[in-house]
Amino acid sequence: MKTRKRTVKRNGTVSRKIELKVVEVTESCFDQPVDSSVYEVIKYSPSALPAKHYDADTTEPISCGLSSMNELLSWNRSEANPFNVAAVPLAPRKPRLVNCLRRTLVSHDMMGGYLDDRFVQGTSSEAPYAFYHWQYIDIFNYFTHQMVTVPPAVWTNAAHKHGVIVLGTFITEWTDGAAVCEAFLKDEESYRAVADKLVQISHYYGFDGWLINIENNLSEGAVKNAPLFLQYLTEQMHERVPSSLILWYDSVIEDGKLKWQNELNQSNRIFFDACDGFFTNYNWTEENLEWMKNYSVVQGRQADVYIGVDVFGRGKVVGGMLETNKALDVIRKHNFSAAIFAPGWVYESQSDKSEFRSNQDKFWALLSDYLYIHRPASQLPFISSFCQGFGKAVYRKGQHETAKSWFNLAAQEIQPLYYHMALEDRGWVRSSGCPEDAWDGGCSLLLDGLIPATLNTPICAKIFSLHVPLDSRIMVTLVYKASAGITVSLQLRTTDSSYCSHTDVHEVTLTSVTPETVGSGPQLESQMSELCGNRDLHGWTVQCSQLELHGCVLREVCVLIHREGEPQDMTFSCRVGEIMVLDVGTLQPPTDPVRGLCIDDVVWLRGAGSSPESSSSCLRLNATLRWDYPVESVRHFRVYWRRLRGPDPRIPPGQLELLARAYSNQFRVTELLVPEPPSVLELLVEPVTRGGSLIPESWWGRRQLSYTQMESSQRNH
Predict the structure, then answer these.
(1) CATH architecture of 69-119+135-376
(2) Which of 67, 576, 592, 705 could bridge 445 with an S-S bond, Cβ 3.0-4.6 Å?
């Protein structure tokens, strides 16, 4: 983790103070010519950026919650954090939530929350916590003990990419919580004001609802208004966010006493009746579930009752830790939904955090028999490099783009199935994330195992369950790196879309193609050469195939592992770097350039920054970049800079240097070491499209920044 302390040397003495200058730009610059320049005179004054939304030392944008009722009631869009707005809408999936009769909610309770994940643009981290088994869950709740927990955008983006609903948390606790409730539940005007703010916050930041957790006693008047508050909040959320949910946690009962029931019953049903679901406390027994199953209030809404499971196993509970599957077994036996609380145990319980991936995979494998596998159901293109949102380096086409550990869940791509499966005669195959080598992002998918001598057919390693319509000419690319003695190919399994309910499965054999056989016209041929032109790149094999299907739905993607030579026991490994399924008809170069590149909120800093190797007299630029481009068509943006001229006119312009990847139409440049004034630099933004099209540099977003030092006579005033 990088240090955030900074030493600034000034007038021969060492100080901890930072010299900052902020420039506010309010007018839109999207329509300005790309060759226009922003002019800056460097001054030093305290930063005007709100400390709760930007790191005090680096000005990096950060996520945070609200800790008081005053903060909540005074919240407004103009003072909100634009960087914490989710950039990814909720993706479609099968089955849809309304069709899931036994749902799974995960409640993130991780060491107080807002840790590495608070850095909206990611951060350096050797061993972060991340979640990537999205195919198993329906709902993700970000939980802290702040009064209003706003989920960090990185979590919302990762969950939405997989079709998972995201809930924030509204919590009141203890004596202070009772006073808060007494105030906001005193009358209709007060509770509606709170509900309206919760709706506005959810709608602005792009998440899908709230878990309401009142863990304090309520007066007679307050408890009377609590169901009305819940009902109004639920109605307003449904109106503003159609896919939204409001859930109530099992705590207060109808007489206002804080008395956990560990079940839904007559004492707490008034809250269940007023919202979308009920999250029980954790100390239930099977008798509680047996009784609830026959409770008349539950009939027709059994999926809306989420039985709480504390993974830490605190108190008198069923299961917990690596026996959490015992709790799921009982819950599913009685056909209830499950709420898995604090699965970060798989991380917190490990002294060696490098074992986190294997521990998490083991935990979710134990639960997998009790969980639905949900299928992404988006239209083509379907693309994944298997990046889990963290790694030891960032890779691009099999080579390091940056060579340091990092964490940013916004970079997470559609996740495959992770499992360990036994084969006949001691054979096995395993699927896991591999950060040691990757094609793009932070990790590849490692398939390894043992092919027994008795197995004469290829191993079919299923890596995706999908529901993707195919009704056109399809291009499929597979990038992999295999051990000696095996042959690797790809198999797609489809259904006839008109008979999907009959699960009529067809296996499609892919035929290899060259770029020339696909295209029509030089532009498409050039694009196909970029995708498929180099069949062996940095040790990775790039395999392209095409097929034509009509009225079909892609249901499974499998990697076939063939043993070469004589039958014998053989261990194998195959790193899968990327899979792309593309509609050839849409493989046309984009027609729109990046529109505008605004430079806002400029902060000049003179000091060593967060890098201990830097000189204490370095000049550093911090600034917000904004641009206009359809985010749904890109995997990410690449943000660059280069020096154009100055301070010495004899020095030629500098080379293009990559700053970072961005996952929305804005990016905060932080601590960029720049030449002394007077100088001119250029900032550029390159879209990286989902279909692999190269965007010519002339279509990138760009803006020049010209800056000079303030005259000494001006500094004296």
Answers:
(1) Alpha-Beta Barrel (3.20)
(2) 576
